[in-house]
C-alpha cells in the first residue's frame, strides 16, 4: 500500500489497509468464483488526503469483458470503508498476471498446484 498523505499514522494505515482488503475480498470474479484479493489481482492501494483511494489492479486476461462488473463491485465494496470518501480503480497490465500471484486458498479452490 502506498500512502500519499502525512495525515495517516502507521497504525491507521495498517488498520485502513486491513479494512480495504476485507472489503475487496467481497468482490468475486464472476468467471472464476474467487475474490479478487485471493486471485492476486490487486497490485497497489494508494491513499491520499481527504479519504481518496486509488486501487491499481489487473485482470486474469487482457480484454476480459467483465471489468465493468468488477469495477462496479469494487466501488460498492469500498462504500463499507468509512475512511474512504472516493475510490478510483486503475487497470494495469504490468506486471502481467499469472497463477503464481494467487493465494494458496485460490489455487486449491481452482485445483491448481
Automatic annotation (TrEMBL):
Residue intervals of the MIP18 family-like domain: 17-90
Superkingdom of this protein's organism: Bacteria
Recorded coiled-coil stretches: none
Any one Pfam family match given in the protein's UniProt record, by short name: FeS_assembly_P
Database matches in PANTHER family: FE-S PROTEIN MATURATION AUXILIARY FACTOR YITW
Protein name per the record: Metal-sulfur cluster biosynthetic enzyme
Protein source organism: Pisciglobus halotolerans
Origin organism lineage: Bacteria, Bacillati, Bacillota, Bacilli, Lactobacillales
Amino acid at each position: 500500500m502506498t500512502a500519499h498523505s502525512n495525515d495517516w499514522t502507521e497504525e491507521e494505515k495498517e488498520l485502513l489497509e486491513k479494512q480495504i482488503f476485507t472489503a475487496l475480498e467481497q468482490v468475486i470474479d464472476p468467471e472464476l468464483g474467487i475474490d479478487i484479493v485471493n486471485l492476486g489481482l490487486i497490485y497497489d492501494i494508494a491513499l491520499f488526503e481527504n479519504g481518496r483511494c486509488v486501487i491499481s489492479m489487473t485482470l486474469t486476461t487482457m480484454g476480459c469483458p467483465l471489468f465493468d462488473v468488477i469495477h462496479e463491485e469494487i466501488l460498492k465494496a469500498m462504500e463499507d470503508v468509512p475512511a474512504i470518501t472516493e475510490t478510483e480503480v486503475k487497470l494495469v497490465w504490468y506486471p502481467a498476471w499469472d497463477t503464481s500471484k494467487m493465494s494458496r486458498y485460490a489455487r486449491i479452490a481452482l485445483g491448481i498446484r
